């Protein structure tokens, strides 16, 4: 039986994050590709009641946040779902699959951002400055998305030291774009524009039901709410995380949800849902065009571009780092843990995650990638909610946040519901993409198991 080689003693991470910076981190991690790229896709599933799926997605995420808060208070380590799964169930394979699913969600999220980069915001800037019009599905646009992924890989390879203070700046940029949309909506209401009756319209496809239409839209809109769970990986860099996490996470999620609901209301007030759906990832650009014809569209396109770049870079960094961590802990072949001798970055993991992203960008659209991201994380969140209940048997020696029991119970039920086929109305393509990704993980796990036998894992070190 092989065991992971013990790591040399390292100094503790610097605890530099206070409550305000943590709040900005939570808001910034949630805002991004989801709302900037998928508003039109969600409108196509629900109709004029576009605000409703975002509100329901917030409720489901909010319930799960209680479980994360209890667990990060109990185990303030930078490992998140993998650590909680391992402590609760002590099943090596399940721990690995949870960690691999989180990694895959980062790749699918970054891939959707790459498509939004090429097909929407860069394409709009080409029109504004060079009068060059390209079809969203053209090979040139797909090529641009692939080049974008490759550029992220180069940045990742060179080594990127992310600062939460820089995150504050990027968050403000992302937020400014959404504030522009909300301001346009407020102006439209003030001058009597828009059609309020659309806000209650729910389009029910033939042979479907209102419930299925709402849950299908919510399952996709959930992609816009993910990101809050990443903040638990900052636990070891926060001052007094047990005290500051609950308020920062819950307030940050509420701020993001309020922004999303107002953006949804504005979009439906100004534009019929069929036109939003037809616009796809360009829906917010259309809202600006219709609601504020005199506003320089290139400004909003540039803001959107920066928003998706930030989301993609964070997710690709997370994915490659987590894959490296799994290799370093010998739960996948050690080959993936190879570090470049000069750049000191995990270049094999970077190449692998970049290759997967290129395949996804070449074969799937934004809606499928967003849906796959939400599916993977809904499965992970279901497990985390159950783990929270199981770990009630372990008592911590320090005081920490304790979620009301109904929160993880309802969180597990709602997450499982939105992840289930048929019940959620989720397209089968989401399951196919997720299935292929997890199958790749299974292959890596089997190869490693055959080569090294059972390995003692340390999930708390996966992100290091």
From TrEMBL:
Gene3D superfamilies, per the entry: Amino acid/polyamine transporter I (1.20.1740.10)
Transmembrane segments: 21-38, 50-72, 93-118, 138-157, 169-190, 210-228, 249-271, 297-324, 345-364, 370-391, 403-421, 433-451
Locations listed in the record: Cell membrane
Keywords: Cell membrane, Membrane, Transmembrane, Transmembrane helix
Pfam families tied to this protein: AA_permease_2 (PF13520)
Keyword presence, Signal: no
Membrane topology listed for this record: Multi-pass membrane protein
InterPro entries in the cross-refs: AA/rel_permease1 (IPR002293), APC_superfamily (IPR050367)
Name used for this protein in its record: APC family permease
Naturally occurring in which organism (per UniProt): Lentzea rhizosphaerae
